[in-house]
Design a protein that fits this description.
Length: about 190
């Protein structure tokens, strides 16, 4: 099932997502929905808060990019970055922030401990586009967006677009959620 993607200024994108304690049929459904929603958009990564669930879960598939055609889709649960090295600036965008792009500096290589779609623990090193997408999506689980990491000047350049999205004025070619700002306030 394709689910509406939550948008910039929605409180769920600012919450710290909660770890999963296992995989049940509800989580399996959510993973299926997230993959379908990501492919429909289309996007190369999606974090659960973007699908309306504040859980530490993300999916990605970068195989649409020529040099990564062999890379299998990934389901990543409860990720923890154990170490990182190097720095790299790359342009990013986000399905929750339609039409906005900007250069973000992040570590080039990360070592990640996480649980896979079988809830089995894995520890692996990632570089290149995988490291980039993983870090972007892990940010979502901590309530952080790529626009928070833009240089001040770049952030100023996109501020009008961000304000427009917050006020409901944007163009997206995929279903989006109505912006909700009540849940977070209720939780303090
Ligand atoms: Zn994003």
């Amino acid at each position: 099932m394709i689910v509406p993607i939550t948008l910039y200024s929605d409180d769920i994108l600012r919450q710290k997502a909660v770890p999963l304690e296992g995989i049940d049929s509800g989580v399996r459904d959510l993973i299926g929905n997230m993959l379908e929603t990501m492919y429909n958009a289309p996007g190369i990564g999606l974090a659960a808060p973007q699908a309306g669930s504040a859980l530490r879960l993300l999916v990605l598939d970068i195989s649409c990019m020529k040099e990564y055609a062999h890379v299998k889709p990934m389901v990543v649960i409860n990720p923890v970055v154990l170490s990182s090295r190097g720095y790299l600036a790359m342009e990013e965008g986000c399905l929750s922030i339609p039409g906005v792009q900007g250069d973000v500096v992040r570590p080039a290589v990360i070592t990640l401990r996480y649980r896979n779609e079988e809830y089995a623990e894995e520890t692996m090193e990632f570089s290149g586009m995988l490291a980039r997408v993983l870090q972007h999506e892990i940010d979502h689980l901590d309530g952080r967006l790529f626009v928070d990491r833009l240089q001040k000047r770049d952030r100023r350049k996109v501020q009008k677009q961000l304000d427009a999205i917050a006020s409901g004025s944007f163009a997206a070619s995929y279903p989006v959620a109505e912006i909700s700002s009540s849940g977070y306030a209720a939780n303090g």
